[in-house]
Amino acid sequence: MFTAKKTVSRLVVACLALMPIVCADAAAADVYLRADVTTMTMHDGTQVTMWGFAKDSSFGAMDGTVTIPGPRIVVPPGDTVLNIHLDNNLTAAATGLSMGHPVSLVINGLTQKLTPVRHGAAPYPQYEGRIRSFNKEAAPGNASPVTFSWYDVEPGTYLYFSGTHPQFHVQMGLYGAVTKNFAAGQPYEGVFADREALVFYSEIDPLFHSMAASDNYGPGKAMSSTIDYAPKYFLVNGESGTTMNRVWTGAAGSVLIRFVNAGLMPKCPAMQEHYMEVVAEDGFAKNYPEARFSMVLEPLKTKDVIVTTAAPTEIDFYDRRGYVSIQATPSMGTVMLAQ
Amino acid sequence: MQPTRTGAILGFALALAFLLAVGPAHAIIEGISGTNFAFSARAGTTSFPDGSTMPTWSFCQTGGDFQYPGPTLKLTAGQTVTITLKNELPPQAGNVSMVFPGHKVTATGGVGPPGHLVREAANGGGTVTYTFTVPHPGTYCYYSGTNMDVQIDMGLVGAMIVYPSTPGQAYDSADSAYDREYLFLETEMDPVIHQAMACAQAVTVDTTAFFPVYWHLNGRSAPDTMAMANADWLPAQPYNCWPQMEPGERMLMRIINMGRDTHPFHHHGNNATIIARDGRLLQSPGGTGADLAESDFTQTVACGSTQDAIFTWTGEGLGWDIYGHAPTDPTEPNEYTPDHGKPFPVTLPQEQELVFGGLYSGSPFLGAPGYLPPGEGGMNPYGGFAYMWHSHNEKEMTTNDIFPGGMMTNCIIQPPGTLPAP
């Protein structure tokens, strides 16, 4: 667990580390993410141990709340640099695993020179040399922030997630969205939307989480592979048990809906009365939007669509693949207000 | 195409030997037209080529036979359609509804508690009425909007086609013109869900464990796809899926994925040009035609989505005169003339070196059936060319683990003059 001594040392380091970053680039978005452990309650009352991200006010402040998905990172128009200062609290004490877990960050679609980390000789000599992280790691209980910087952040919708043991960490909940508008009311250059909403899909296989939390996942342990992945909870913006979802436009006009899939299974977001103008995919605006009432949203995929209505409207949608959380009863979940 | 390969490919069709050799279909897309429809959601039984019977729920015409999938609605752009749905499903099904993606629907009657997608017909004979206009031509679908994780797998799906005022076109664009049209409605079934629902064990079925082992086109598994429409031994599955065309014609493929999985539908023989998705022509803003159309040989359609493609075939690229002409012979209609008179490029093997199939005509030439040993062939009386069209997720070419079957059919290129005029 976090100690008072460590808190002090972290604060000092954070202050020292923060100053040059803030001064160096006024047009940079600086975000303090903390990887930590939390417990989620599913719609049926089941408690699931999750690993997720919280957004702190500074390194070591520990004042953010771990959410699934992680905090949405909004890069302001005009900013081209994103700095994420990572605090890893996936310590042995927090996770119940003997050595805790290192964490890294990757954002597909935003370029960064990755520095992969390979397994050392211990504790699994048979895996020495194999890559375990796509990018540099923040060690459990790191005393100073590990900063990940992207210098060419283009307008778009992106997914950030742990690049360490991704078959493990992504399932556990270490993911979130990054968005950037070209300008106010203009998600991409020449693409206009009055309001927007974010729809973030993910999944939970509760068996895997219980095995991970009880230190029964890993080489030679009761569960040594994720091959039998069998999700039972299907989350929309972290909410389980919904059978449909709704965006309330609040006014006439155009609404941009950013679809993100952090799950391991493809989704098919489908709408009833409305056509979606698919204006962007993977953070790239399309030359010619395509009108769809259903589309495939593969794992790691982001697609931005625009729905235009002549009056304030409820936009109902659902995963046409028909995957709903186990024993879900009809529920639209929390209505998303387009903003 | 090498003769031995021809033999090997067509040898596959040997397993289809119990198919009846039937003449070309006349009603190419079966369905019903009108503006007022009375539908009932009912329980019935479908049958598949492994000998299984499957408890199935489907939309049917009230008073009509049980059928799977639901009746194909053949409408005309601009019509206003009213569908009254009656819930005749067993108690374990609960309520039922219909959704028509892409259309603004007014629902009256029925029940509509919060959290439900649309107003529903209550279990026990309840009704609900849906009214909507179909302003745009295209290929659409309908399905249950209630407990979709169960009801879609159980069979509550159907096709809806909206024709433009111009006959022979799929859309209001001349480059959507076609000679023949065929429907490819893709579905799959997980028998665990069907058996649980038939036994009123809805509480215990885990639809997250969805594991289909049956795959269908228009409600049938191969080789039943290639039997005649309205075959009396398939009373609950009236629609076949046996595309046939003559060289030079334009075939419109209307593909609808009503399943929970995507299916890479692969059409041997040629690429097709995808001209529309979800009932909207693939055109740039202000475009005058399908100027964003794309060419593909495997079409994967999103769940709940539709796709239209134009398939053409002339024999171009085969490298021999498909009619076996001498150079001085006259050409056939729509013949690929650069290959006119080109000899077959290899010496045909002897019969004892070939494995035959039901669809092999006995020769590599169109409309020229050749010698076949007694008991071989017989399902290709016009001497057409057969191309297997199927889900290229090869597992889906099985019927409950029995190959061949599942989501598969054959497209037959028939010799000129053998099919009824389009």
What is the terminal-to-terminal distance of chain A? 38 Å
> Remind me, CATH topology of the domain at 39-167 in chain B?
Immunoglobulin-like
Helix percent of chain A reads 10-25%
* Largest sheet report of chain B: 7 strands, mixed
CATH class of the largest domain in chain A: Mainly Beta
Largest interface: A-B, 34 and 39 residues
Structure summary, number of beta strands of chain B:
20
Stretches of chain A where pLDDT is under 50 for at least 5 consecutive residues are 1-26
Number of helices of chain B: 3
How many separate domains of chain A? 2
Strand ordering within the main sheet of chain A:
12-11-14-18-16-17
By CATH's scheme, which homologous superfamily of the domain at 39-167 in chain B applies? Cupredoxins -  blue copper proteins
Write the layout of secondary structure elements.
The complex is a heterodimer of chains A (339) and B (422).
Chain A: H1 4-24, E1 28-41, E2 47-56, E3 73-75, E4 81-88, H2 92-95, E5 106-107, E6 117-118, E7 131-133, E8 146-150, E9 156-161, H3 166-172, E10 175-180, E11 195-204, H4 206-213, E12 233-236, E13 245-248, E14 253-261, E15 269-271, E16 276-281, E17 284-292, E18 302-309, E19 314-319, E20 336-337
Parallel strand pairs in A: 1-4, 3-10, 11-14, 13-20
Antiparallel strand pairs in A: 1-2, 4-8, 5-9, 6-7, 9-10, 11-12, 13-19, 14-18, 15-19, 16-17, 16-18
Chain B: H1 3-11, E1 36-47, E2 53-61, E3 73-76, E4 80-87, E5 106-109, E6 127-133, E7 138-143, H2 148-154, E8 157-163, E9 180-189, H3 191-198, E10 214-217, E11 244-245, E12 250-257, E13 264-267, E14 272-277, E15 280-281, E16 294-296, E17 298-300, E18 306-312, E19 385-391, E20 408-413
Parallel strand pairs in B: 1-4, 3-8, 9-12, 11-20
Antiparallel strand pairs in B: 1-2, 4-6, 5-6, 7-8, 9-10, 12-18, 13-17, 13-19, 14-15, 14-16, 14-18, 19-20
